């Protein structure tokens, strides 16, 4: 859908995804599956199924590996762009948060 594409390509949304990932890390503990469960609950207002958790963990892990090979700086909303690469694990979690925030479950009410 056009809205999802706009959200996925928005630098502002990537900044919000980083802020969301920071919250998930601080409130969700150190265990990645627990962080994933919290992110799903905050975005969708319900618990994730175990298959959703497993797929999300695998997604974060694959994104983390990508960012290890392709160092990427954090997004900044104001000021000069950062040149320092972000932590790959944080960027992987941020990618999941960004995807959840751009999902139809958040955009449309059933």
Quick summary of this structure?
This protein has helices at residues 2-8, 11-28, 32-44, 50-69, 88-101, 104-107.
Q: Tally of extended strands?
A: 0
The major beta sheet can be summarized as: none
Strand content: under 5%
Mean pLDDT: 89
- If you compute it from the alpha carbons, what radius of gyration comes out, rounded to the nearest whole angstrom? 14 Å
**How far apart are the termini?**
16 Å
Order of helices and strands: HHHHHH
In helices, the fraction of residues equals 55-70%
Any low-confidence stretches, pLDDT <50, length ≥5?
Answer: none
User: Outline, from the CA principal axes?
Assistant: globular
Separate helix tally: 6
Structural class of the secondary elements?
Answer: mainly alpha
Describe the structure in your own words.
The protein is mainly alpha-helical and 110 residues long. It is 69% helix and 0% strand. It has 6 helices and no strands. Helix 2 packs across helix 3 (32-44), helix 2 (11-28) packs across helix 5 (88-101) and helix 3 (32-44) packs across helix 4 (50-69). The radius of gyration is 14 Å and the shape is globular. The mean pLDDT is 89.
Throw out a few tags for this protein.
110 residues; mainly alpha
């Amino acid at each position: 859908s056009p809205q999802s594409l706009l959200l996925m390509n928005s630098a502002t949304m990537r900044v919000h995804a980083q802020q969301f990932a920071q919250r998930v890390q601080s409130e969700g503990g150190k265990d990645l599956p627990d962080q994933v469960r919290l992110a799903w609950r905050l975005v969708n207002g319900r618990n994730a199924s175990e298959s959703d958790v497993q797929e999300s963990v695998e997604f974060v892990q694959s994104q983390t590996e990508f960012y290890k090979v392709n160092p990427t700086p954090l997004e900044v909303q104001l000021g000069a762009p950062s040149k320092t690469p972000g932590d790959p694990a944080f960027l992987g979690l941020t990618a999941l948060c960004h995807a959840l925030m751009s999902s139809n479950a958040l955009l449309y009410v059933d």
